Amino acid sequence: MSYDLVRGMNDLLPEEVAWWRLVEETIRDVARRYNYREIRFPIVEYTDLFTRGIGEATEVVTKQMFTFPDQKGRSLSLRPEGTASVARAYLTHGLQTTAPFQKLLYLGPMFRYEKPQKGRYRQFHQYGIEAIGSLDPSLDAEVIAFAWTLMTDLGLGGLSLRLNSIGCEQDRAPYHAALRAHFADSIGAMCDNCRRRYDDNPLRILDCKEETCRPFIGTAPGPVEHLCEECAAHFAEVQALLDRLGLDYTIDPHLVRGLDYYTRTVFELISDDLGSQDSLLGGGRYDGLIESVGGPETPGVGFAGGLERLVIVLQERGTALDPERVDLFIASIGDNGRRLAFELTEKLRSAGLAVEIDHRARTLRKQLALANQLTARHLLVLGEDEVASGTAKLKEMDSGEERDVRLDSEVLAAELADDRRGSE
Ligand code: HAM
């Protein structure tokens, strides 16, 4: 009997992992330059953290969480995102008193019970940054600049940044009133979800993807029209700073995002390569989140993106990946040759080189085919003559050049290191 993969969850074979490592290394390098330090937190939290943090009425909480009781009947959930956990960790470790300003990076698996399709999975992976402890618009602009820098470093152009401000808690009531007034005549013709949202949280109506609802949504007022003076000034400054950097963005008056903790700035980076799941990353400010999970009033801003989606875009654009090469392949003939090959391989690996032999005792022809498959930089063939003389021909695979070398691990290590330096 064999087992199936759990729906919406994926294995990553080594060829695929090579892409992930490229993306992860680039993210870590951008984080280093922007001074965001990595935090790691558990995959499981008490369900209540997400219910209160992300919002009771959001799709993520009502429909998408993997929730289960522990042995004592407490409700636990697999994390559907990272921001609520970062807020929890900030409070768990008393950072609000010891080091209230934090710039944090995280990478890891997240879980949402969604209908799987290209770019949408039940176990997916996010990279995200969170800057906590300041209301300054420079932080909103920095977080957005981080996202652009990452895309530039990965060679991804042609993306579009959608930006909006949904204002503060106080702006919500007048905006909700304006939305209810706008939808008052049409709500009867809209979907069940929208009818529910009309009473609970009319802002969520703007997220509706139903064909029947879209025409009514298209003409709805945006939250920017209802910003208080402070929020309007904040949004203007975020834009002024982005303009300074020459970053391109479009104000999307209906961008509200799907999680309840957002205040003021919200944004998404969109790629045409992703089809319907076009959001490469999304984020914004969440000045009420830390308070809502039991902490003092503490502002924050950040974003998260899906690693799978970045890899898809890179692959679809035909980005070339450098092959992972071994420095040396040692082929051998006969028992003595094989033993010497084994010993040299171990010693050279200890000296820091990537070396491989054939562990299936096959013909020389098959061993050489394996050396090619591994795109080995160098090749040695050890037979009885080489064992007896203690020398062999070291072949440089790219140029085909050969030179005599002593079969001594230190000599070989120096030769290979020299070649590597030469080719860099
Ligand atoms: P989100 O928009 O729910 O925001 O998710 C962020 C990104 O995660 C999406 O743009 C997408 O790239 C990826 N993503 C989400 N769901 C899936 C899925 N089922 N399969 C594959 N990729 C997915 C958040 O999670 C917020 N915590 C972002 C944030 C951080 N806001 C402030 N700080």
Offer a concise description of the structure.
The chain has helices at 14-34, 47-54, 59-63, 83-92, 95-98, 137-153, 169-183, 192-200, 214-218, 229-244, 289-292, 307-316, 334-350, 364-373, 384-389, 409-423; strands at residues 37-38, 44-46, 67-69, 75-78, 102-111, 123-132, 160-165, 250-251, 263-270, 279-285, 300-306, 328-332, 355-356, 378-382, 391-396, 402-406. The chain has 424 residues and is α+β, with helices and mostly antiparallel strands. It has an 8-stranded mixed β-sheet.
List the helices and strands and how they pair.
Layout: H1 14-34, E1 37-38, E2 44-46, H2 47-54, H3 59-63, E3 67-69, E4 75-78, H4 83-92, H5 95-98, E5 102-111, E6 123-132, H6 137-153, E7 160-165, H7 169-183, H8 192-200, H9 214-218, H10 229-244, E8 250-251, E9 263-270, E10 279-285, H11 289-292, E11 300-306, H12 307-316, E12 328-332, H13 334-350, E13 355-356, H14 364-373, E14 378-382, H15 384-389, E15 391-396, E16 402-406, H16 409-423
Parallel strand pairs: 1-5, 7-8, 12-13, 12-14
Antiparallel strand pairs: 2-4, 3-4, 5-6, 6-11, 7-9, 9-10, 10-11, 14-15, 15-16
Helix pairs in contact: 1-6, 1-12, 6-10, 13-16
The structure holds histidyl-adenosine monophosphate (HAM).
